[in-house]
Amino acid sequence: MEVGWLAGIIIGGLAGWLAGKLMDIRFGIFMNIVIGMVGAVVANAVFDAANVHVASGWLGYLVQGFVGSCILLFVAKLVRR
């Protein structure tokens, strides 16, 4: 099942918000959501290229997006210093 682009934006934003809360990184809610969406897109592309499937549908997209968001937020925090 493929996630549509609008659902991808919403789920990616949720993943970014959750990652920001878990990692206690405060770029502001808007920036965390944007980083989350970018992280979700990148992570899903990497997971698909590596043929790794966590789960199907929106739950898989959320988990993969969360992982990508955590990594991207960590990198953004390092760059911000």
Structural notes for this entry:
This protein is mainly α and 81 residues long. The mean pLDDT is 80. Helix 1 packs across helix 2, helix 1 (5-23) crosses helix 3 and helix 2 packs across helix 3 (57-80). The protein has one domain. The protein has helices spanning 5-23, 29-49, 57-80. The chain crosses the membrane at residues 6-22, 29-47, 59-79.
Secondary structure topology:
Elements: H1 5-23, H2 29-49, H3 57-80
Helix pairs in contact: 1-2, 1-3, 2-3
Spatial gap, N to C terminus = 40 Å
Q: Strand share of the residues?
A: under 5%
The number of helices is 3
Shape: globular
CA radius of gyration is 12 Å
Q: How many domains, as an integer?
A: 1
Mean of all residue-level pLDDT scores: 80
Low-confidence stretches: none
The number of strands is 0
Write a brief caption for the model.
The protein contains 3 helices and no strands.
Features:
transmembrane helix, 81 residues, mainly alpha, 0% strand, transmembrane, Transgly_assoc, membrane, cell membrane
